[in-house]
Each structure stands twice: as C-alpha cells, then as structure tokens.
Amino acid sequence: xxxxxxxxxxxxxxxxxxxxxxxxxxxxxxxxxxxxxxxxxxxxxxxxxxxxxxxxxxxxxxxxxxxxxxxxxxxxxxxxxxxxxxxxxxxxxxxxxxxxxxxxxxxxxxxxxxxxxxxxxxxxxxxxxxxxxxxxxxxxxxxxxxxxxxxxxxxxxxxxxxxxxxxxxxxxxxxxxxxxxxxxxxxxxxxxxxxxxxxxxxxxxxxxxxxxxxxxxxxxxxxxxxxxxxxxxxxxxxxxxxxxxxxxxxxxxxxxxxxxxxxxxxxxxxxxxxxxxxxxxxxxxxxxxxxxxxxxxxxxxxxxxxxxxxxxxxxxxxxxxxxxxxxxxxxxxxxxxxxxxxxxxxxxxxxxxxxxxxxxxxxxxxxxxxxxxxxxxxxxxxxxxxxxxxxxxxxxxxxxxxxxxxxxxxxxxxxxxxxxxxxxxxxxxxxxxxxxxxxxxxxxxxxxxxxxxxxxxxxxxxxxxxxxxxxxxxxxxxxxxxxxxxxxxxxxxxxxxxxxxxxxxxxxxxxxxxxxxxxxxxxxxxxx
Length: 528
What we know:
alpha+beta; three-stranded antiparallel β-sheet; globular; 528 residues
C-alpha cells in the first residue's frame, strides 16, 4: 500500500472515531442503464417508436432514449445507499418490461448488440418538434454521419458518484490547507480521483467486462484479432470488453485530443477548443444539406458530450448552460464512470456487489494521492487499457503497467489488495461488511478466471453456437422473471402520472418556442 493511501485511511478512521460520526462515509450515487429494445422472436432491434405508454423521451425523469429510438436509457435519482439506488432501477425495469411485453418486445441484456443489418437498420431517436428536441435529433444525425449508427447501439452502465459535504470537511482538515476554497478543493480532488482512476481503470473491464464476443453483423468484414466461432459470431480469444476496445467506441478525430486531467482549467479549455476547431473530414459532410441537418457543425466535437471518455467530471447544468461553463463557474460536483459493461446475467445489468466495489474503488482513487500525470504516462494509458481489454483473460500476459511490466494476475492482485484495505476501513467504520464481500468476490475471479463475466459469456456463446442466440435466451429469461412479478400499486401510479406529465411538459415546451431552430442553434453553439 502506498504511504499516501495508508496515511489517508488512518486519518479517515481517526476522524470518524473521534467524532463518533460516519457521515463522511455517506456516498451519493445515481445509475444510468442503457438497453436496446428488441423483438422477442428473433432479438432484432426494434423499429417501433418509443412507446407512448412510457411518456416523452424528451422530458421523462427516468425513462428516455439514447442514440437510437430503440436504445432505452433508465435514470435513477441520487441515493445515499446502494440498495435504494438498485430498488429504484428495479422498479423502472419492472414497469418498462410490463409495457414492452404488450409490444412483443424485451430488453437486450448485453452491451454489444445482436444482429443489425447496417446503419439503415438503426432508427435515430426522435424528440418532437421543439427546438431542444430538434437539437437532440440533429446531434444524433451528426453521430450517424461521423461514426455510423451501428456503433451507437453499444450499451453500457454509467455510475454517477459524489462524496458528502462531511467528507470534504474531513479532507480539508487532512490536507491542512485553509487557503483553498471548498469549491476548488472539490474540483482539484475530483481531478486527482480521475487521474488515479485512469491509471488503474484497466481493472474494471477485467473484472466486469462482459463483451468478449460480437455478432458478425457488427463487423461484417471481420477482423484479424477476432476468431470466428460460428457463422454469425466473432470472439476475442482472451478479450474481456470489446465494447471498450478499438472495435467498440473509436474516433480518429478525437485521437489527438490531449486530455490528461492535470488541471481543471486545462481540461475545460481543451474541450472548448475541440468544439470550435473545424475537422476536414466533417467539413466534407456539410451541416445543412437539402434543407436537412446532417450535423450541428463541422468541428471536432459538435457538443461537449461527444467527447468519449471512460470517466467524466460533471456538474448539474442550468437550462441552456454548457457543461464546461458549469464546471468553470461552479466547479466539479460529481464524477460519471462510463467504463462499465452491462452484466447480461442480471435483469437490470448490474448487481449490489458491483456497486459496492465501485464505491470502494472510487474511495481508493480519491485517497491514493494527487500526483500529476507525466506526458509519458498519458501516452501509455491508452495502449495499456487496450491490451488489458483485448488480452485480459490471459492472466499470465505481461503488460507495461506504467511502473513496469507485470503479469495481469500479479498487478490485479496487487491493486485489489490496496482496494481491500479501503474496504476493510469502510466496513470497520460503518459496520457494513458488503464492502469486503464485494472486493473478495473480485479476488476470487483472479484466482479462478472462469468466474470472470467475459469467460462466462464466451462459454455460453460457444455452447449456444451463437452470441446472439445466447443473449436472446437471457433476454427471454429476464422477461419471464419480470412478468412473474407484480408492480406495487403506488409505484405503478407514480409511473403512470409521470408518463402523462412528461407528455404535457413536452407539449408545453413545443408551444413555448418563439424562435426558429436556426436562431436557437446559433445561440446554443455560441461559446459561453
């Protein structure tokens, strides 16, 4: 264990013991889960519009769409416990699944889609006739022209996490720095967390990656790094998460964006520069052609959220406010972890132990230290992660982990040992053994790689003779499980009321627009 982590854990223990108060260990989390709607009979992507019984995708508080009309996104509120966050997510799934069953549809359980017959097979999400709705649709058209629609059907789980105000009081005392404001302390500390996350985030796809195989339609021309295990399935022989590999989210235009998270101001300026810098290949596409928008602009990024990253600093924005302006003016409020594959073996894409591990790991990243990145580290990070996600099931594989070459198994055990120290401290102070249990489960995976989700998916795909058939079977089982459950009357009424209210909110927005979309777009894209 590093000296800085040891000192921080000791100080945290003393703080909570002396005050006889563990409010500093209250964490706030919210979950975003993406999932494709598919036809129950063949697992093909749905071409039906977003169900009206689920309300407005533009304004609904917890049920919306991502890139495609068929790519659903479920959003929980902010919760002080893992259990309450999962309970809300479970309720959303139960309500949605009952509605989808009426349409002969279910939720695809995996991150990588099943059979998709090219871009024309993927309907882009619609959000109505308001200026804000047109903006969301035009942005997605831009993604279509820039990267293709099929890539945008990849689904994942995003985890939003923040520390309680009492934690910041502890950290300010621990760092003994009265000169820095709480706003600056939070921003600088969250950026330190992000740096430590990026140094070690290769561990998460190893432990939770569940996309070692893809349907051949995703890469119809094949790939020399993948093996064909059946006429419709390609497999990475030792892959853990093809979703996080170059075969998943990839972007040549963003390859030169040098974002290393050493300074808040530098991060903001890098992103802002990207949304104002033209890119030659995008200029060839055009913006408005034959009266229809192909993209919002021809710059490296249309908007800030187009920047692909496995973790983001975040701040709740005001209406019309750009994310970078919110960060600049009010600092970092929370972080968003975007690296996680869906767990196809669970009906909601994740389980309690996954979230407890994430909580523990993020505390580790916060307390490990605040060393800045060197240029060499920044350069090495991407290749390190790519090797880990494509070779991770070969635990004896040697990789350069920044501090030298070690086997994946040795480095994983070393990192998990440090994370277990954090779990032990959290468990001792809170009396909640779930932290230790969650980390121990991950240690067990390294001891027996057949327990890795990627290994289970690989085995199941081979048994079924097809990745798509294996995932469809899981989708069918999850749908049967949902149908066997009754939704609580009060929860059903709350969803029904929100459905109606969301449709009214969309109607109000559409009726309230007073400017043309062209003027609205020009104002929206004006630097703040």
